[in-house]
Structures are given as C-alpha cells and as structure tokens.
Amino acid sequence: xxxxxxxxxxxxTDGVRHALEVSLRGCDELIPQDDWVKKLTRSEKTGVPLRIxxxxxxxxxxxxxxxxxxxxxxxxxxDLGHQVIFLIGDFTSLIGDPSGRNSxxxxxxxxxxxxxxxxxxxxxxxxxxxxxxxxxxxxxxxxPLGSMGMIQLAAKYTVARMMERxxxxxxxxxxxxxxxxxxxxxxxxxxDSVALKSDLELGGTDQKFNLLxxxxxxxxxxxxxxxxxxxPLLEGLDGVEKMSKSKNNYxxxxxxxxxxxxxxxxxxxxxxxxxxxxxxxxxxxxIEVLKKEVEGGRNPKDAKVMLAKEITARFHSVAAAxxxxxxxxxxxxxxxxxxxxxxxxxxxxxxxxALLKQANLAPSSSEANRLIDGGGxxxxxxxxxxxxxxLAAGTFVVQVGKRKFARVTLS
Length: 411
Known about the structure:
Belongs to the class-I aminoacyl-tRNA synthetase family. TyrS type 2 subfamily. Catalyzes the attachment of tyrosine to tRNA(Tyr) in a two-step reaction: tyrosine is first activated by ATP to form Tyr-AMP and then transferred to the acceptor end of tRNA(Tyr). The chain has about 400 residues and is of the alpha/beta class. The chain folds into three domains: about 15-230, HUPs (Rossmann fold), CATH 3.40.50.620; about 255-330, Orthogonal Bundle (Tyrosyl-Transfer RNA Synthetase); about 340-410, RNA-binding S4 domain (Structural Genomics Hypothetical 15.5 Kd Protein In mrcA-pckA Intergenic Region, Chain A). The protein has 16 helices and 13 strands. The strands form three sheets. It has a six-stranded mixed β-sheet with strand order 1-6-5-2-3-4, with helices on both faces. A five-stranded mixed β-sheet has the order 7-13-12-9-10. Strand 12 and strand 13 form a beta hairpin. Helix 1 crosses helix 2 and helix 8 crosses helix 9 (about 210-220). The radius of gyration is 25 Å and the shape is globular. The protein starts with 13 loop residues before the first helix and ends with a strand.
C-alpha cells in the first residue's frame, strides 16, 4: 500500500500512474517504489521536474546499444518532462570502477578519459534530447573536495559495510588484492548524487551497491534520499552473454546502417521481444499487439524487420534504414550491394589469403584460410575452396560472409 508522509493513502492521478508505468517498464528494481510515487506526486502538484541522473565513465571511446538501455529509460522520463542529467565520470574514471571485477581495474590516464569523453555525449545525444539534457562532469565537485573533504567523506561509511559488496567480499575471501583506492569509487559516485541533489539515479544491475551509496550519503548530508532504478544488462547477439565488445556479440551505435540492420535481424525470435521491451520506443500495448499477431501466425521476421528499422533509423535516419532493408534483401538473394568499398592493390599474382588481409576483409592470413575452409569467401559470386588460389591482375568483387564486400583492382 502506498502512503504519503502523513500516513494516509494518496489517490494516484492518471499522470502519476502513467509515469510509474513508464518507470517500471523493463526495469529490474525500483527502490523504494513508494518513495518514487511520492516524488512523482509532488512533482505533478508543484510543477517542479524531478532530477534524474545517469553517470557513465568514459572507459571506451564508443557506446554499443547495450549501453543505451539506461539511456532509453532516461529518454522516456525526459519525455515526461523531468530534468535528466548526463554525468560523465571524468574523475571517477581516474579511480576505476571495481564493479563486477575479480581484480584491480587499471585506472585510465587523463588523456584517455578526455579522448573518450569527447565522443560519449555526442553518441548519447542520439537517444537523449540534447536540448533538454544537463551535461555535467564529476570533476567539478570532486577535485575541489581536496584531501580534507575526502577524509570527511570516507568517515561516513564503514569498512564492514564496504566489505558486504559482493566483488570485494569474494576477492577478499579468495586472497585477491583489493587496493584502498577502490573503496573510494563507490564513495565518489555516491557523492555525485549529493552534489547534483538527484531524485532518481539510473544504472545497470551491476551498479546497485554504488547507487545505494548515493542514497546513504544524501541522508548523511541532510538531503532527501534519491530513489534508484536498475536496468538489466542486455543480452548480446548470441542471446546468452551480456552484450560486450570483448565477446564480439555487440552492435556499436556508430556502425554503418547496413551492418546494424543485418545484426538486429540475426537475433533469435525469443530475444527479439526482450529487445523490444528494452530498446524500442513503441508502447508496451503496441508491442503486445504485435506479439499476439505473431502468435496468431504472422511471420516473426516482420516484427524483427520493424525493430531493425527502428533501431537503425534512431542512429542513422529513416532513409538509411529503408536502404539497409533493401540492401539486406539484395544480399539474401545473392546480389551485390549498390555501394561497396573500392580499393587498388599491387602485387599480382596475389594469394587469396594475402588479398583478404590487405583488403581488410580478414584480420590475418590464417583467419582468411579459416573463412575459406568454411565456404565463406566468394570471388565474383563463386565460392572459393582453394586456399592456394592466386589472383592475376584484374578487378574482382570479393565477398566474405554475408555482409563484407569489396571491389578490388589488382595490378
């Protein structure tokens, strides 16, 4: 039962009910939900938007669509009229987030952080409305804190509570080193919530400890504690492991439209519905109608094409998504795309392995041989089976797999 501060049960308006439904869509946990309802009710009555924070450390130069699960939630809440804050952790990146780590994470250099941060917000703006987004860097308040302030902050949390954190507990039990500076990470992330006076902080399920730290520190500093909303980690193209560049099961949001479209189409019919919930901007009602149509006999590929076009259009354009669909149709029929890379190479006659490597169609000659063994290499439409093939001077359309093409002029 939801109760207000005085203990009575408030009457939820349609607006608050809708906002709560939007908040809960696809989320793993909303803590505490009652407090979030109170904040939504107060915001509706006063007209003062809530402050909603998402912090990302620029640990890599590019974002993949797994990262956009929390960005999508931010956009949904932004569209309700609340103030979203995109926080770039340029200070916390110097420490290194120990979340989910079984060893000390090497901190980034200031130069790496600056280079990565330059692309982060530009990429996030493909999801968020940049005209309504507050962008902040946590070095703004973390650097002025100084050594005295850091000691005072550290006094607000105990080592025993810090060791309740799963990754610290497991590493300590296994005798794996834990550096003292790693204890500073959750403290500094929590202090971000104090500095920004956030009402709600978003993050992945692996960030729950850090998000709860923000609630604790806000209370320590006499603020109303934020609520926290965790979003699940998106499964990658394989439908098993979480999306990760290291596992090569990802879609980068800067990938070309044709590749992005084709990768979405490659996911399983089951995974498609989870991606719809977490990545699509269609309403849950629209998705449910589509799901019932598929259960009633409609080809699930129709639904997958709609999802692929929506995601591709978000990061490129509607026209690019339409062109990507046509490109996919052409390739599925064995056709060659209208636009493929063209390059000139010298050294004829050239071995097929060397050609694939020099044309950037394979990372190495050994990988090229593996692709040939698997029947994944074509020259002018014909499958290459001879790893010893040497190509004379001329122009050839070289294809690797379903998506890689190049028009190579060899001299």
